[in-house]
């Protein structure tokens, strides 16, 4: 079936329909009755998704896509390139190969990469795609990664793992022990074959929870793309017992915002009422929980212990959004009627009892415009509204 999809006629059709509405396309008659229409439509939908997320794959001829969902769930090229910058040496084995985006970038940094995949069809697809991408130093092996590692019985510079949640774990608190493979249970086994392990997890995993299950954690990297956290990377080094380093990265179109600090380092926080400028940390920093490190590093003051908004009389280069304060006032009926009712504004809530949706509905505030409003709590536990102009 893969070969049928890769025929010149069908590939031409897929490329021709790359901007089509797939739901409408599905209502049309299949011009290739020898191949299931759903499979062709799947290729169109998946390649559409790959256009911005996987531009190298999108531009390469004769790539076969497993499904649109698989493309949605895989690493982006931006995050894969960053992961590759963290490894060194000669040999890496990926125990959960998937669509192989990470391995493609690992192969640019190391001499030899092994892609393990338990799904035989996916393994064959990835092997085919690596040939199209001219990646000659990646070896694809089908089967259970635990057994593959045991059978190979060789030392690697790195083991890479992207565990997936078991179906029966849906709805529960995200724990690594509920994933496949069970990393906490197999950790000693993995360290027999590599001194360095990189684990990728979804942003839903709580950092404290992850640390309670893992040992020898050297660093945690929190990666956001356009201010949306995409993944956490856990760097483990055999027998490591020293300070854990937190790295936050927000990949933007024209630059990168990086902020690093030591986990659970002691910092004194000063509080104050809103001043001329307001600072909101990016999503990667928010996920990291390093709220009390920011004031010391950037010489800022915090509005409230739980508000995670910062202020200063000085404008600074800051990893997040920066606003100039226009005015602020107590949250009450009279003030809202005067300043915001029936107006247009961008609304954010931080440490505030009402949702953005409720605030908009109650005061008839439409979305958009140049005004930015923060509904929050100040150092005296008063509910306040900040009216701001966005600078960055």
From TrEMBL:
Domain THUMP-like: 320-390
Provenance organism: Flavobacterium aureirubrum
Protein name (record): Class I SAM-dependent methyltransferase
CDD domains attached to this UniProt entry: AdoMet_MTases (cd02440)
EC number: 2.1.1.-
Coiled-coil positions: none
An example Gene Ontology molecular-function term: methyltransferase activity
Annotated signal peptide: none
Family matches, as InterPro entries: PG_1098_Fer (IPR054168), SAM-dependent_MTases_sf (IPR029063), Thump-like (IPR041497)
């Amino acid at each position: 079936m893969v070969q049928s999809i890769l025929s010149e006629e069908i590939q031409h059709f897929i490329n021709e329909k790359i901007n089509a509405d797939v739901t409408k396309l599905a209502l049309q008659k299949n011009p290739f009755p020898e191949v299931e229409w759903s499979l062709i439509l799947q290729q169109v939908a998946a390649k559409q998704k790959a256009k911005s997320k996987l531009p190298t794959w999108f531009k390469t001829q004769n790539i076969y896509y497993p499904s649109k969902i698989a493309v949605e769930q895989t690493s982006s090229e931006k995050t894969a390139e960053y992961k590759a910058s963290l490894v060194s040496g000669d040999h890496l084995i990926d125990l959960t190969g998937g669509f192989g985006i990470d391995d493609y970038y690992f192969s640019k940094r190391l001499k030899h990469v092994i892609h393990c995949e338990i799904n035989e069809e996916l393994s064959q697809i990835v092997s085919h795609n690596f040939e199209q991408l001219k990646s000659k130093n990646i070896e694809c092996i089908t089967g259970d990664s635990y057994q593959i590692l045991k059978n190979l019985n060789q030392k690697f510079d790195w083991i890479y793992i992207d565990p997936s949640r078991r179906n029966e774990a849906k709805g529960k608190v995200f724990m690594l022990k509920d994933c496949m493979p069970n990393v906490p249970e197999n950790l000693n086994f993995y360290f027999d074959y590599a001194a360095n392990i990189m684990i990728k997890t979804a942003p839903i995993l709580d950092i404290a929870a992850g640390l309670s299950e893992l040992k020898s954690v050297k660093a945690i990297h929190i990666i956001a793309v356009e201010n949306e956290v995409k993944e956490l990377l856990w760097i483990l080094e055999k027998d490591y017992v020293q300070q854990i380093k937190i790295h936050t990265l927000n990949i933007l179109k024209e630059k990168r915002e990086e902020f690093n600090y030591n986990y659970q380092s002691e910092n004194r926080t000063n509080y104050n009422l809103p001043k001329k400028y307001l600072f909101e940390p990016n999503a990667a920093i928010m996920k990291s929980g390093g709220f009390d490190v920011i004031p010391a590093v950037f010489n800022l003051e915090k509005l409230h212990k739980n508000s995670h908004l910062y202020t200063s009389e000085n404008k600074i280069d800051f990893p997040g959004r920066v606003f100039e304060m226009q005015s602020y006032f107590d949250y009450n009926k009279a003030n809202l009627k005067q300043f915001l009712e029936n107006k247009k504004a961008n609304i954010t809530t931080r440490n505030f009892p009402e949702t953005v949706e409720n605030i908009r509905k109650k005061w008839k505030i439409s979305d958009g415009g140049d005004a930015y409003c923060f509904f929050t709590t100040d150092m005296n536990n008063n509910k306040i509204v900040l009216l701001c102009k966005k600078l960055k």
